[in-house]
Amino acid sequence: MRNGEWDTVYQNFVYEPYHDENGKVQGVIAITIDVTAQVVARRRTEENEKRFRFLLNAMPQQVWTAAPNGNFTYLNEVMIRDFDRSFEDIISQGWEVFIHPEDLPDALNRWQRCLHSKQQFLAEFRLKFSDGNYYWHLARAVPMIENGKVSFWLGTNTNIHRQKVNETMKDEFISIASHELKTPLTTIKGFFQLIKRDVTEQTSLGSFVIKAERQLERLSRLIEDLLDVSKINAGKMIYNKELFDFSALMTDTVESIQHTTTTHQIELHSDCSIEFYGDQLRIEQVLINLLNNAIKYSPGSRKITVRCTIENSNLVVSVEDLGVGIAEEHLKSLFDRFYRVDNSSARFQGLGLGLFIANEIVKRHGGSFWIESQPGDGSTFSFLLPLNGTQEFTDKATDHETYYEGSFIRIHYREQEAYLDVEWLGYQNYDSVVKGCGIMMDLMQKNNCYHILNDNSLVKGNWSEASDWGASVWFPAMADAGLKKFAWIYSPSTFSRIAANKSLPSDYEAVQVAFLIIKATR
Ligand code: ADP
After folding, report:
1. In whole angstroms, what is the distance from residue 336 CA to residue 350 CA?
2. Which of 97, 108, 129, 407 has its CA 20 to 30 A from that of 434?
3. What is the CATH architecture assignment of 395-516?
4. Is 473 in the pocket of ligand 1 (CB under 6 A)?
5. CATH class of 242-386
6. Tens digits of per-residue pLDDT, 464-489?
7. 340, 351, 382, 383: which to mutate for ligand 1, most atoms within 8 A of CB?
8. What's the gap in Å between 336 CA and the centre of ligand 1?
């Protein structure tokens, strides 16, 4: 009762006896301290924690938290139920005993990289449940960052087993169905050859036969594409590589596609008289696909231009049309299976497999694909094939202290202006990016120079395979090593620009990053 009213307060009481000179207790001093605020706050925290745990346990996913060093600190009940082990047991064992041995190295590798870079963790792996079976999961974890430091990681493992199984079943079905369709089709084609012997083209029956044959060809191409996709997915695509005349392949393919169209004129500028070692039929297939697409997706225009050049021991082929074009947000996904910009198929027919297959073929020859396009103005699809099976990046000169020159990069420490001047040259890939970035780090540290101008204006093609590495490994390491300012001049190539944006994490407080566009190259 305070001031005539009831009030709830919490007090800490301390009772102390006090004594006279003979040590006899005279009385008790009572000291009370008001701790209401602390108790209310503690109760609120306990209540919140209870609700938070209820929430985490109500989720269908496995939920966990880990300390900044990666060790588990909390697991929800779903996890304890799935593994049928005690909390302490799981915490002390860690991931290793539950992840499938085949998936473990990749998962651990990614996790270590994320712990270092403080970036989101994403991985797919199979987890062993208490029934002894493995189930596919998608794992995701994000760091809670406070005052620039990770205070803990919050992770979820989502069961995606059913999707994975369905996908495998779909692939098997496609494989079986296309095999079954191919056999009668081959027989029909044979009979058409016989019919053609007895009917002349001029008769109406003859023209029907020709039209029917063209449709059979289309059907046959679709079935071949489906078969190729199932082979690629099962890792069973076989490449028969041999030396062949690349220039002849270009001329013959352009000629044969020109025969199939009256609406388009294909111009060929070829400067690649060279013997190339690769699978001739598969590379022809890539070119046919690009040409057919160029025709299909440019109904309102006539001209298609094919170019072939040799640059730095690489064959570079491009097919340009003046057709409908593609918006930038679609560019990266065009090489995915079944991806189509306009899926309605009302306007353009297709399955969305051609580019997926083409990309796979080019990759298996050590090359890469890229696209430049403006909606409404047309598209240029290009691919690169290294003459020696892999792109080569050679050293030219270095003093190991202040400069390095290679076939793919030039780095100079500009002492007067106090910055590192980095110029990337020509076609890059994962290897060149890793090598160049390593040298950049070395020269930055040797010269204590933490301002970098990273000029990509002479970069061509597509090196996106290195952008994840850039963001998760290299850039955090540069930041740790003291990098302060990083100015990046974009390449004029769209794919290169997209990769540039992916390569630099945007949330580094200690490093100032700027992207620059310049119109003229130096
Ligand atoms: P499909 O043509 O059967 O759909 P592809 O894999 O060959 O499959 O192409 C995938 C998608 O890429 C197409 O659906 C289309 O949206 C887009 N595309 C391909 N080539 C071009 C082009 N030359 N111009 C515009 N869009 C294109």
Report:
1. 14
2. 108
3. 2-Layer Sandwich (3.30)
4. no
5. alpha beta
6. 999 988 987 898 889 889 999 999 99
7. 340
8. 11
